[in-house]
Specification:
Elements (H helix, E strand, L loop, with lengths): L4 E8 L2 H13 L5 H10 L5 H11 L3 H9 L2 E8 L9 H21 L4 E3 L8 H13 L6 E3 L14 H10 L3 E3 L6 H8 L9 H15 L2 H4 L5 E3 L1 H4 L1 H18 L12 H7 L1 E4 L6 H11 L4 E2 L12 H6 L5 H15 L6
Parallel strand pairs: 1-2, 2-3, 4-5, 5-6, 6-7, 7-8
The structure holds 4-hydroxy-3-methoxy-5-nitrobenzoic acid (1DF) and manganese (II) ion.
Length: about 350
């Protein structure tokens, strides 16, 4: 059985977004230590990794296609790199998101057989974000939305953001909940040991965000909502048993005002409403474990280009001990289904 490889967490940036980031770094105008740690590095460092990443993020043409060809990636699902426009003020964020979506749409139009777009949006103004999502899906043909975790320290269990859930549920597209550096409240003890970034802090921040969404009852209110999360579920699959046990105990004891009864167990939402990608986790034992506890139809491939552009890692997923039909689901059909590729 043959298949193509679809990579589902692949990043780009616009020159205008980088200009905004440089301006914030220069003026120190935002209270977000993680942002300075991440982008203070990638935008100023002169090592080859930072230089390559800056250049590859800005390319939506030949270099990206060559890199995809070099490791057999047929299609990238492309989104604006973290933290996207969520670090900006509301008005600037909305206009940079619109511009980024237009630039990505032009690239998709040039290479419709290679690129699929996810919509950037600025949750700082939820109403405007919902309109931009509607435009990006209905007019530009994008197949989902990128959410780079916290927005100025706020999380999507907060009902002020729920009109964004309404919009995606209505449009029937998923949200990719992508990492950001931990919010200012969370990052303290990570910074001085360099644990704030993709090594660990990203996963803590993003797993926490998804758990806040689950325990707040978002999926009871929006039962059709689909959330995609990378890095093999940001460690949550390993916690399934304990999450269910402790959540039930807390609800029974009425211990926390913010922990209400849910219609299902936390693990049920993680299996039914959540899809998981392998970005940055080319590691057979972990992939097989997550498939076994989440279900093979909700686990799919991602590379995390250009941050983890390691062509040899594709061999790890090519060599997974699964059938040809399961491999096709992992690399291709699960992504085609959750992003409704070829259906509009
Ligand atoms: C890094 C990793 C940066 C991922 C990312 O976006 C990112 C990194 C700024 O290595 O610094 O998306 N990642 O998803 O693992
Ligand atoms: Mn990523």
């Amino acid at each position: 059985m043959s298949f193509v490889r679809i990579a589902t967490e692949e990043a780009f940036a616009t020159a205008e977004l980088f200009d905004c980031y440089r301006h914030i770094i220069e003026k120190k105008s935002v209270d977000d230590p993680g942002f300075y740690s991440l982008w203070g590095h990638y935008l100023t460092h002169s090592g080859s990794r930072a230089i390559d990443i800056r250049r590859k993020l800005l390319d939506l043409g030949e270099e990206r296609l060559r890199d995809m060809d070099s490791c057999g990636i047929a299609r990238q699902i492309i989104s604006l790199t973290a933290p996207g426009v969520q670090i900006l003020d509301a008005a600037t964020g909305a206009s940079i998101a619109t511009q980024a979506n237009d630039q990505l749409a032009e690239a998709v139009a040039r290479h419709p057989d290679r690129f699929t777009g996810l919509a950037a949006m600025a949750p700082q103004d939820p109403g405007r974000a919902a309109s931009e999502i509607e435009r990006a899906v209905s007019s530009l043909g994008f197949r989902g939305v990128i959410l780079n975790s916290h927005t100025h320290g706020e999380y999507f269990d907060n009902q002020k953001f729920w009109e964004i859930f309404e919009a995606v549920e209505q449009l029937d597209v998923p949200i990719y909940l992508h990492p950001n550096t931990p919010s200012a409240r969370l990052i303290g003890p990570m910074l001085d040991r360099g644990l704030d970034g993709a090594i660990y802090g990203f996963g803590v921040e993003t797993g926490l965000h998804l758990l806040r969404i689950i325990v707040s009852g978002v999926f009871d209110r929006f039962p059709e909502l689909r959330i995609i999360v990378g890095h093999l579920g940001e460690a949550l699959p390993f916690w399934l048993f304990r999450l269910d046990f402790m959540h039930a105990a807390m609800v029974k004891a009425g211990r926390h005002a913010g922990v209400k009864p849910l219609k299902k167990r936390p693990s049920d939402y993680l299996r039914e409403n959540v899809w998981i990608t392998t970005s940055g986790m080319a590691w057979e034992p972990a992939i097989m474990f997550v498939r076994s506890v989440i279900g093979a139809d909700h686990v799919m491939y991602a590379m995390d280009y250009p941050y983890q552009f390691v062509p040899a890692e594709v061999k790890v997923t090519d060599d997974l001990p699964i059938s040809a039909a399961e491999k096709k689901a992992f690399y291709q059909s699960n992504a085609e289904s959750v992003f409704a590729l070829g259906m509009g």
